[in-house]
Automatic annotation (TrEMBL):
Sorted UniProt keywords: FAD, Flavoprotein, Oxidoreductase
SUPFAM superfamilies: FAD-binding/transporter-associated domain-like, FAD-linked oxidases, C-terminal domain
Keyword Oxidoreductase: yes
Species name: Gluconacetobacter liquefaciens (Acetobacter liquefaciens)
Cofactor(s) the protein needs: FAD
Protein name (Swiss-Prot/TrEMBL): FAD-binding protein
FAD-binding PCMH-type domain: residues covered: 49-227
Recorded GO MF terms: FAD binding; oxidoreductase activity
C-alpha cells in the first residue's frame, strides 16, 4: 500500500489560525473547512487512495494565489495544487497537514489570437473547451485526452497529457508556448509567450509535466492549429496481437505518420461495442483505429498503403469511414473505452507505461502470463503509435486482497515496460502511484539531480510533497558540503 508523509502535528495544531488567515485572503465561500465539504476533495481519479485535506481554498485571482503561497511559504505549510481532479496517478491526492489549492474558478478564456494561432486561457478551462472556443475559425487544440470533456488545461500542463492525436501533433509540451506561474514564495513570473522561442534555459519545458511540484500555473498560452482539410479513419481487425504490433511498426517505418493510431484488445472491443455500437469486429483478437488526414488525394493514397501493410500482417477485416459521422463513431468507442470497461468489473486499475513499438506483441503476451499469476483479467486500450500502454486491471475492491493483487500486477507491468526499453509513464504522471518504482528506472544519482531541480524552484519542499520521489529529502540534505581539515574539496570552483 502507498504511504504518504506523516502529518506535522505542529501545523495541525494551528489549523484554526490557518483557516482564519486564508479567509482573510479569499473571503466569502472560497475557504472550505468542514469535514463533509472537504470530503469532496479527498481523492482524484486514483480513487483507491483517499485522504482528507486539512483545508481547501478556492482562489479566483492570481493575486490571491500569490498571497496564499506567500503565507504558506512563510509559515511552512504544504500545498497541493488541484485542477479537475481527473489525475489517474494520485497527483492531486491531498495531505492531512496541507492546503488543497483548487483552481476550478480559473475558467476564463482571456484572448483568442487567430493571427498568431494561439489562445490564452486560465488553467480551469477544459481541454475540449479550448477547441470549442476556436472551432468557428476552423481551428482546434490538438492534444485530446479521453477525459477531455472534464480535464483542464492546468492539469494537462502538470501531467504533460497526450491523447489519440498526439502521435502526429504532439503532447501538451509541444503545444504549450507560455504560462504565468506563481512560485512557492508568492513571486509571479512568466515563461514563454506568443513569441516563437525564448532565450536561455528551457524552463517551460521543465515545468510541463512537473506534476504541480515547481509552481502553480494561473494562465496558459497554447498553440491552436487549422483543422486538416479532411480526415478518415480505418478500423482494422487482426487475428493476433503480434500482427497488430508488426503492422504498427511497419506503418511508422514506412514514413506514414497517422493523425492517430489506437489499439484495443478483444476484451476492450467487446466492452466498447456494447457501449457505443460502432460496428467493431467482435471476432478480432485486436483492433487498430488509424486516422489519416490531409487533402482527399493524400488520404486515399495513405489508406491504400496502410491497407496493404495491414494485409501483410494478418488483418481479418478493414473498413474505412465514408463520412464524418462514421469517423467520429469509430472514435467514439475508443474515447469511451474506459467507462465501457467499467461495465465488466466493479473496479479497475488504469495503468500507464510506454514501450518501444516493436515490443507490443512481446509485452502483451507477457501480460497474459501475468493474468494467470494474479488471477485477474486485463483489458488493453492504448496509443499504439507511440507505444503508450493503458492496461485496465479488473478487480473487486470488496474482495479481500484483490486491490493489493491489482497493484502488484500493475507494478509488474511497469517493471516490464522498463525491462524492454520503455519508461514508467507516458501521460498520467508518476504521482504516488509510480513513486516507489522510480528506482527501477533511475539510479540514486539520477533521482538526486531531479530533486535538486525541484529545490531550485521550491527550496522547502512545500509544493505537493510525497509525490514522484520515493524518498522525501530536504534540499540541505542534497547540498551538503564536505569539509576536511578546514578545507573544501575543489576550492577553485565557484560556490553559490
Amino acid at each position: 500500500m502507498i504511504r504518504m508523509p506523516a502529518p506535522d502535528e505542529a501545523v495541525l495544531a494551528r489549523r484554526s489560525e490557518i483557516v482564519d488567515a486564508l479567509r482573510r485572503i479569499v473571503p466569502g465561500e472560497g475557504v472550505i473547512d468542514s469535514e463533509p465539504e472537504r470530503r469532496a476533495f479527498e481523492c482524484d481519479g486514483l480513487t483507491a487512495y483517499r485522504q482528507l485535506p486539512m483545508v481547501v481554498v478556492l482562489p479566483e485571482t492570481t493575486a490571491q494565489v500569490s498571497e496564499i503561497l506567500r503565507y504558506c511559504h512563510a509559515n511552512r505549510i504544504k500545498v497541493v495544487p488541484r485542477g479537475a481532479g481527473t489525475s489517474l496517478s494520485g497527483g492531486a491526492l491531498p495531505l492531512q497537514d496541507g492546503i488543497l489549492l483548487g483552481l476550478g474558478k480559473f475558467k476564463r478564456i482571456l484572448d483568442i489570437d487567430v493571427e498568431n494561432r494561439c489562445i490564452v486561457v486560465q488553467p480551469g478551462v477544459t481541454n475540449l473547451g479550448i477547441s470549442q472556443a476556436v472551432q468557428a475559425q476552423g481551428l482546434y487544440y490538438a492534444p485530446d485526452p479521453s477525459s477531455q470533456i472534464a480535464c483542464t488545461i492546468g492539469g494537462n500542463v502538470a501531467e504533460n497529457s497526450g491523447g489519440v492525436h498526439c502521435l502526429k501533433y504532439g503532447l501538451t509540451t509541444n503545444n504549450v508556448i507560455g504560462v504565468e506561474l506563481v512560485m512557492m514564495d508568492g513571486e509571479i513570473i512568466r515563461l514563454g509567450g506568443k513569441h516563437f522561442d525564448a532565450s536561455g534555459y528551457d524552463l517551460l519545458g521543465v515545468l510541463v509535466g512537473s506534476e504541480g511540484m515547481l509552481g502553480v500555473v494561473t494562465e496558459v498560452t497554447v498553440r491552436i492549429l487549422p483543422k486538416p482539410p479532411g480526415a478518415r479513419a480505418l478500423m482494422i481487425g487482426f487475428a493476433t496481437i503480434e500482427g497488430v504490433g508488426h503492422c504498427v511498426a511497419e506503418v511508422i517505418a514506412t514514413g506514414i505518420i497517422p493523425g492517430g493510431m489506437e489499439m484495443m484488445d478483444h476484451l476492450a472491443i467487446e466492452a466498447a461495442e456494447a457501449f457505443v455500437h460502432a460496428g467493431y469486429p467482435l471476432d478480432a483478437a485486436a483492433l487498430l483505429i488509424i486516422e489519416l488526414d490531409g487533402c482527399a488525394a493524400e488520404i486515399d493514397h495513405l489508406i491504400a498503403a496502410v491497407e496493404a501493410i495491414a494485409g501483410r500482417h494478418g488483418a481479418t477485416s478493414c473498413r474505412a469511414s465514408q463520412s464524418e459521422e462514421e469517423r467520429l463513431l469509430f472514435w467514439a468507442g475508443r474515447k469511451a473505452a474506459f467507462p465501457a470497461v467499467g461495465r465488466l468489473s466493479p473496479d479497475y486499475y488504469c495503468m500507464d507505461g510506454t514501450i518501444p513499438r516493436r515490443q507490443i506483441g512481446t509485452v502483451l503476451q507477457r501480460m497474459e502470463e501475468m493474468e494467470a499469476k494474479y488471477k485477474l483479467r486485463v483489458a488493453n486500450v492504448f496509443h499504439a503509435g507511440d507505444g503508450n500502454l493503458h492496461p485496465l486491471i479488473l478487480y473487486d475492491a470488496n474482495r479481500p486482497g484483490e486491490l493489493q493483487r491489482a497493484e502488484d500486477f500493475g507494478n509488474d507491468i511497469l517493471r516490464l515496460c522498463v525491462e524492454v526499453g520503455g519508461v514508467l509513464t507516458g501521460e498520467h504522471g508518476v504521482g504516488v502511484e509510480k513513486r516507489d518504482l522510480m528506482g527501477t528506472m533511475f539510479n540514486d544519482s539520477d533521482l538526486a539531480q531531479q530533486t535538486r531541480l525541484k529545490c531550485a524552484f521550491d527550496s522547502e519542499s512545500l509544493l505537493n510533497p510525497g509525490k514522484v520521489f520515493p524518498q522525501l529529502c530536504r534540499c540541505a540534505e542534497l547540498g551538503r558540503v564536505h569539509v576536511h581539515a578546514g578545507n573544501l574539496r575543489f576550492p577553485d570552483l565557484p560556490r553559490f
